[in-house]
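Sample pair:
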Amino acid sequence: SQIQERWKTLGALKQGLDALEKGIIEDALGACVGVVARTARMLVVPRTGLISRLATLEIDAEQFKGHRY
């Protein structure tokens, strides 16, 4: 049905947006040497919200510590 097709389209768009968001967050973490609070300020998002997104997108901020990208 048309509704099912729209739902599939939404799922594909969400996957693309999640991948884009993950890349941006990882780039920001790299620029901020893995410091989540600094990364949140750079992205102008609440730190707690960023922590939640890190978990959802399976990003380990620790891997960026000590490395400037």
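The first helix runs from residue 2 to 31.
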